[in-house]
Task: structure prediction
Amino acid sequence: MTLKKINTVLTAVFILFILWFGTDFILSPETTAPGFGLPSWPPGDGGGFLVIKGIRDVVLALVLGVLLVTGHRRALGWVLLVESLAAYGDMTTVLAHHGSVATALGVHGLTATLMAVTGLLVMRETRKVATAPQPA
Result:
C-alpha cells in the first residue's frame, strides 16, 4: 500500500470520527459529555457550550473532507497539523479542570498526536523531490 493510500485512509478515519463525535454532541450532549473527560455537567445553561463544541467538530471534519475530496494534499497536511491543536486544547482543558487524566491523554492527547503524525505524513508525501543535476 502506498503512502498516499495510507494517508487517505487515516484522514478519512479522522473525518468520520470527528464528524460522528461532533454530531453526537449536537444531538445529545447530555449523554456524550461524560465521555469528554470533564468531571461535571456545566451548571445552568452550560449545555449550549457542548453544542458549540459539536458544531466546531463538524466544521473541522468538513474542512478536512473538502481538502481530501478536492485533492489539495499539501493543504490537507497543514490543516491536519493545525486542527490537531484543537484536540491538544481539549486535552489541556480536561486536565486544567480536574477531569479524567486517562481520557485527557488517552482520547484527546492520542487523537491530537495521531492527527499531527498524519499531517506530517501527508506533508512528506507531497514534498517536492529534488532531482540530481544531469551530467553534461
About this structure: The helical segments are 3-27, 29-32, 47-70, 73-96, 101-126. The mean pLDDT is 90. DSSP finds five helices and no strands in the chain.
